[in-house]
Amino acid sequence: MPTESAETLPKTLPGVVCAQWRKCGKAGCRCARGDLHGPYFARFWRQGGRLRKAYVRKADVKDVRGRCQARRQAQAECVAAMNQVREMSSFLKVMESS
Ligand SMILES: [Zn+2]
């Protein structure tokens, strides 16, 4: 596990932080009965036309979310951000159903 602290992160970050619930795939595990593991947090953003993903530690979620929000405000990209969120949620649905 990387030990970098939140202080090393830039002040603003692109993208959105999403909570994810996972199935581990083990037969007989609680997740097989719908009691999924999580939440795991990840930040999704676009870079060079590609969707990038970085896991966010639970302790950093509030901080990283704030930085994403700061980026959106700084760039006044409310509409773009909303489109991005919509894109992300359809992307996540695809991932969950695979
Ligand atoms: Zn499981």
- Percent helix: 25-40%
Specify the number of helices.
2
Strand percentage lies at 25-35%
Structural class by sheet pairing and helices: alpha+beta
Domain count: the total is 1
Give a quick account of the main beta sheet: strands, pairing sense, barrel closure: 3 strands, antiparallel
Mean pLDDT value: 84
What is the spatial order of strands in the main beta sheet? 1-2-3
Note the run of SSEs as H and E: EEEHH
Hetero groups in this structure are: zinc ion
Q: Kindly, what is the distance between the CA atoms of the first and last residues, rounded to a whole number of angstroms?
A: 27 Å
Morphology call = globular
Residue windows where pLDDT falls under 50 for at least 5 positions: none
Rg, nearest Å: 15 Å
SS elements, strand count:
3
Task: Sum this structure up briefly.
With 98 residues, this protein is an alpha+beta fold.
Describe this structure as you would to a colleague:
There is one protein chain. The chain has helices at residues 61-75, 78-97; strands spanning 16-22, 37-47, 50-56. With 98 residues, it is α+β, with helices and mostly antiparallel strands. The longest helix has 20 residues, at 78-97. 11% of the residues are buried. The protein has two helices and three strands, in the order E-E-E-H-H. The protein has one domain. Strands 1-2-3 form a three-stranded antiparallel sheet. The protein is 36% helix and 26% strand. The two termini are 27 Å apart. The protein is globular. Strand 2 (37-47) and strand 3 (50-56) form a beta hairpin. Bound molecules: zinc ion. The site of zinc ion has 6 residues, from loops.
